[in-house]
Amino acid sequence: MPPYFMSKNFTHLDAAGNPSMVDVGAKPLTRRTAIARSTVVLDEAILQHFTNDDIHTKKGPVFQTAIIAGVMAAKRTGELIPLCHPLGLENCQIRIALNERREVVIECEASLTGKTGVEMEALTGASVAALTIYDMCKAMSHNIVIRDTMLMEKTGGKKDFKRTK
């Protein structure tokens, strides 16, 4: 096994370089929060259907459906991401709005009091909400781009993080 696999930087590998779930048993309970963002760029053919803070298609209200899908996905992150701890989220909120460039901005905020962070839950929630918007709008146009999925902020654990740009 190459020595870089043995590095302490790879927390999900054991001493032999095999995949391993991180043991969080001895870690203290702390309040953990994370906010993730995804951006969806929609074609004008889709945006012309934007009214009353949502886009309505034959499949239903797009943003409302994406909110539900994002929360459901965040709750199941441990089933989707290998070696990710299954967490009982205490809160998960999805916010969707158009920005000044008429791009759809999705923010997912997840939180709990626990021994491990909720970054992956927030990122999963934002990502699946974006994918749901794509799915519900693709009949109107395939000219849709999902971009810039990123962690915006996290608190709790070893260190806090806040994106400055």
Q: What this model shows, in words?
A:
- By secondary structure, the chain is an alpha+beta fold.
- The protein has one domain (about 30-155): Molybdopterin cofactor biosynthesis C (MoaC) domain (Alpha-Beta Plaits).
- About 25% of the residues lie in helices and about 30% in strands.
- The chain is built from four helices and eight strands.
- It has helices at about 45, 60-75, 75-80, 120-135; strands spanning about 30-40, 50, 55, 60, 90-100, 105-115, 145-155, 160.
- The protein has a five-stranded antiparallel beta sheet. The chain has a three-stranded antiparallel beta sheet with strand order 2-3-4.
- A hairpin with a 2-residue loop joins strand 3 and strand 4 (about 60).
- The N and C termini lie far apart (about 40 Å).
Question: Spans of 5+ residues with little confidence (pLDDT < 50)?
Answer: none
Gap between N and C termini = 38 Å
Structural class: alpha+beta
Largest sheet entry: 5 strands, antiparallel
Features:
165 residues, Alpha-Beta Plaits, three-stranded antiparallel beta sheet, elongated, single chain, 32% strand, 4 helices
How would you summarize the topology of this molecule?
Elements: E1 30-41, H1 44-47, E2 50-51, E3 54-57, E4 60-61, H2 62-75, H3 77-80, E5 91-98, E6 104-114, H4 119-137, E7 145-155, E8 161-162
